[in-house]
Amino acid sequence: MLSQNKFLFCVYLFLLPIITIGQNFPSKNFTTSDGLPNNAVRALFLDSKNILWIGTENGVSRMENGTFTTIDESNGLGHNSCWDITEDTDGNMWFASYGGGVSKFDGKKFTVFRMKDGLLANKTRKVFPFKNKIYVGTEQGVSIIDIKTNKLITPKVPAHKEDFISLAFVTYRDVVYFTSTFEGLFKIDESSPTPRIVPVVLHKNSYSLGLFGSTLYSGNETYINKYDFDEILSGNKTSLNFGKSFVWQFAKDNRNTIFAAAWGVYTPDGGLYTIADDKMTDVSTIYGIDSKVLLNVVYDKFNDILYVGSNDNGIYQVRLDQIINYNPFQSTSIIDFENFNHDKLILDNKGLKVLNAKQEITNSISLEDFKKSEMFFYKKGQNILKKQSAESRDFELNFNIPTNEIEFYEIVKNQNSLWINSNIGIFEIDKNYKIVHYLPKHSLKIGFGYDNKLIETITYAGVRVYENLKTLENRHYSKFNKNTPQYIVKILTNNNKTYLLSVFNGIYVYENGQFRSYLADGIWKEKKFKHITKNNKGQLILAAEFGDVFIVDDSKSFKILKTISKKQIIGNTILFLESYKDYVLIGTEKGINIYKDGIVRLIDKEQGLKDCRITTSQIFDNTLWLGTQKGFYTIDLNRLIATQLTVSEIGISKIAINNIPLKPSFYKWFRYNSKQLVSDYKHNSFSIDFVPKGHPFPNKLKFRYRLNNNNRWSPYTEKTNVFLPYLPYGNYNVEIEVFDMNAGKSKVFTILQLYIQPPFWLNWWFIILIITVFSGIIAFVFLRIKRKSNEKTIIQRRIAETKLEALLSQMNPHFTFNAMNAIQDFIISNDIENSLLYVSEFSKLIRKTLENSSKQTITIEEEIEYLEAYITIENMRFDNRIDFEIQISPEVDTSFTKIPTMLLQPFVENVFVHAFNESSISPKLIISFKMISNTLLECKIIDNGMSLNTAKKSKLHQSKGIQLTKERLSLLQDLKNDSIKIDFTENNGTTVTILLLV
Asked: Which class for 66: exposed (0-12), middle (13-18), buried (19 or more C-beta within 10 A)?
C-alpha cells in the first residue's frame, strides 16, 4: 500500500508542471448590455483610424472608448444584417449585407448597390479592397466596383453545381484570389478589360482563407487545409490537413502567433485557437473566452489587443501585452511569496509550492507534511509547556488542529533557511525544501533581526529574541516595558536596524540588542501602521491601513522626507506597499497606485488586474507578484512604469443647441466637421459630446473644461460631455483638460471656438445706425435752435439799436438845452462877439451831433473832433480858463478803431457842470486813449476839479447822460466787470475809466 502511495505521489509531481503553467490574459466581454445592437456578431474590422467596426444582425456599431455607436437602415445603411466590413484606399467604408446588397459610406452619406444596379446578388458575404476596387463576394459569385466611379462589373461565373458562395479573398503577387464554399480556390484574371474567374484549386468545403507569407490556410469542414502558394503556382496543389472544427477567420499578432476563430457548427469544438507547428491549440480559457461559436478574430497592432467576435455572446477584447499575467494556481488562496535557490516559493492554503523559471511546480510541501512534523515533535513526549513558556498560554498551541484547518501566516527567509509560521507552530525548511526543524510556538509575526536572531512576537505577552534555536535559549522582553513591541504586523531589517511595525503603538526599532519605541520616546507620534518597505535609497516607506504613506530617512537621525496624503491615494484601504526604483506601489481595493513626484497612476481591472483583493506582495527582480484568494498575478514592472500612450486628440461627436441636435450635414465621419460654431444670442445653451482618441484605457480618463484662458477649470468628471447653459454673447475657446490615470499625464485640447452673436441692438451696424439717427436728430434740433437763436439775436439787436437811438435822442436834447443856456447867458451879458462866436461853434457842433446821431459807432478820430468842438464851446463859459489835453497811445489806431457814438461827451459835460466853478484854480481836463489788450480799449477822463466831499454833496446832481451812457454800454457789450468806473479823490479831482471792446 505504501509503495502504491509513493507511486501516485510521483505521478502527481510529474503532472504538476503541466497543470500549472497556464496564465490567463486580461479580457473583457462586450454584449448588448454594453450597447451592442445584437450579440450575434457577423463581422469585425479595424479601420485606418484604429476604430473597431462590428457587423451584427441589427446593424453596424463603432466602438470607441468602450462605447458603441450604432448605424442602421434609418441612417441609410442598405440592410441591418451586416456580414462583412472593409475600408477602401480612399477611406470609404463598405458593408456587405445578407439581403440588402452592398453599402458604401463616405463619412456623410450612404450609396447602396443592389441587383438592380448590376450586383450579382443581394445576399453578399464579403467585401475586399484592392487598389481602386472593391471585390464583393455574393452567394452567386463576385462583383467588382470601381471606388472612383462606382461602376460595377460582374465577371462570368464558371460552371458550378451548387451556389457559388464567395466567402474569402486574398492577394498574392498583385493577383486577387477568392474561395467558393463548394468549389474551391479561384483567381480573378484582370489582364483584359473583362475580368475572368479562373479555377486554381478545386476542392469542396472552404469557409475561410488566411495568407501569411506564402503559407495559405483554408478553413475546411472539421480541419484546415495548409498550402504553399508558390507550390500552387508551380502546379503542386496538395495540402497538409490538420486541426479541428470550422475556422471562419484567421489573424496574426506582432509575435507571429496565428489565431483562428472557430465554430464547429455540428460539434461543440469551437473557440479560439492558436496555430503552430501544424497544430491547433484551444486557448479560449486562458484568453477568457467562454463562447464556442466564434466567427471573427482581428488584431489591433497599435494597442496589442485581440478582438474576437461570437455568434451568441458579443465580442471579446483580449490584451496580449502580458504586462499583467494571471495564474489561477488551482484557485488556491495565496499567503506569501519568497525566492530561494533561484526558485519562486508560493505559500498557499494547501502548503508550499516551489516554481522554476517557467512557473512550473518542481517541488512542494503539503499540509500533511507540516502536520507530520508537528506530530513527530509531539509524540517525542517532550515537555511542551516548558518549550512554550508560561507567558504564551494566552495563545498556546493546539495540537488537536486537524490538517485541513492549518493556517499559514508567512514565509521568512534567513541565510540558508526558510521559516514558516502557522497556527500549529514554526517550521524551518532547508535548501532542499525539507522540514528540518520545528518550534512549538504560535506567533502571528516572526522575523530575524539585523543580528540574524529570531524575533518572536507573543500575542499579549511581549517579545522573545532567540540566542539559540536548537536549545530555544532566548531573552524575553516584558510587555510592561514601554519599549517592548506589541501588536506587531510587519518586521523589516534595514542595514543595522530592525523595524517592528505596530498597528496601535507606532514603530519600534531593534538596535544594539535593545528595543526602542519611537512613540514612547516622542520621536514620532504616529500610532497606527500596517505596512513597511524600503526604497532603492535605503529610505523607509510606511503606511497605515486607512491613512497616509510616509517616506522616512532614519539612517542618522529620524526625518520624514515626504508624506503621500490619503487624499491622493485612490482607494480607502491599503493592502500592500512596495517600492521599485523611484516609484512607490500602493495597493488598495481599487487597484495599484503608482506614485512618483506627486503624480498617481492607477492600475486596475481595466488593465487586467481583475481581483484587487491582494493578500500578499513581493518584488522579484523586475516583476511584482501579487497573491489573491484565487491564484496570483505577475506584473512586469519595467513595462508598467514605462511611458504610456495617452490621448492624442479629442473630437466632437455631437452638439445640441437649446436641446436640439445639429443636423447630420454638420458632421463627417461622426465628428463635427469644423473647429468653430456661431450661434445667435437666443440659442445660447450647448451640450457637447466629445470622444478622446489615442489611449488604451478609456475608464482611466478624467475631464474638466474651461471657456477661456482666464477662466477657472471645472471640477474633474468621467463624463465625455460638456453642458454650457445660458452663455452670454461673446467669444469662447472651449478647452478640455484630460487627465489619464493610466499614463499619469494631463493634456489640454481646444475643441471648439464658440461665438455667440450679440442681440441685434448691440451689433456694430445697429449701434452705428442708432448713433447716426440720434446724431441727425441732435443736429436737426441744434440747427433749429441755432436758427431761432440767430433770429432772436437779430430781433434783440434791432431792439437794442432802436433803444440806443432812443437814448441818443434823449441825450441830444439835453446837450442842446445846456448849449442854449450858454447862449442865453452871453446875450444877457450883452457879449455880442462871444455870442456870435458861440453860436457859430454851436452850429458846427449841432451839425456834427446830427451827423453822428444816426451812427452806432464812430472812429476815435471822429470822437476826438467832436469832443474838441464840445470842449471849446463849454470852455467859453469859463473864459477859456480850463486847460484840456487829449493823450493817445501809439498802439491806438484812431482812424480805424471805432467806439460808440457820443460815448464820452456826457462825462466831459459832467466835468464842466460839476467839477469846475469860478473859484477853481488852474482847472485841467485830460482825455486819454490806451490799448490794454488786443481787444480792450481804455478811455480815461481826468479832472482836477472839486474834492471828494464836495462831489458827495453834489451826487444828486450827476448828469442824466452818464446814466444813459452806462445803459448804452450794457446793451452794446458784455463785460464781466463794470465798464465804467468813477474814482473820486480828496484833492485831485475825479477820474472816469471806461473799458470798451473794440
From this structure: middle
- Find where cell 521568512 sits: 412
What residues contact 846, with CB distance under 8 A and at least 6 apart? 816, 819
What span, in angstroms and rounded, lies between the C-alpha atoms of 682 and 692?
30
699 touches 742 (CB < 8 A): no
Q: What is the pLDDT of residues 586-642, one digit of tens each?
A: 999 999 999 999 999 999 999 999 999 999 999 999 999 999 999 999 999 999 999
DSSP string, 797-865: HHHHHHHHHHHHHHHHHHHHHHHHHHHHHHHHTT-HHHHHHHHHHHHHHHHHHHHHHT-SEEEHHHHHH
Give the three-class secondary structure for 770. Answer: helix
Q: What is the DSSP letter of 877?
A: H
Torsion of CA 751, 755, 756, 759, to 10 degrees: 180
C-alpha cell at 933: 489788450
Q: Positive or negative CA dihedral for 46, 52, 53, 57? A: positive
Distance CA 936, CA 976 (A): 13
Smallest Cα–Cα separation from 921: which of 944, 897, 892? 944
- The pLDDT tens digits of the residues spanning 658-709 come to 999 999 999 999 999 999 999 999 999 999 999 999 888 999 999 999 999 9
Report helix, strand or coil for 738. strand
Q: Model pTM?
A: 0.74
Measured over the CA atoms of residue 323, residue 327, residue 333 and residue 337, the dihedral's sign is negative
Helix (H, G, I), strand (E, B) or coil at 598: coil
Who's near 603: CB < 8 A, 6+ residues apart? Answer: 324, 591, 592, 594, 609, 635, 640, 742
Q: Are 163 and 182 in contact (CB under 8 A)?
A: yes
Closest CA to 44 of 79, 86, 73, 94: 86
Sign of CA dihedral 913, 914, 920, 923: negative
Supply the DSSP symbol for 244: -
CA pair distance 987, 920, nearest whole angstrom: 12
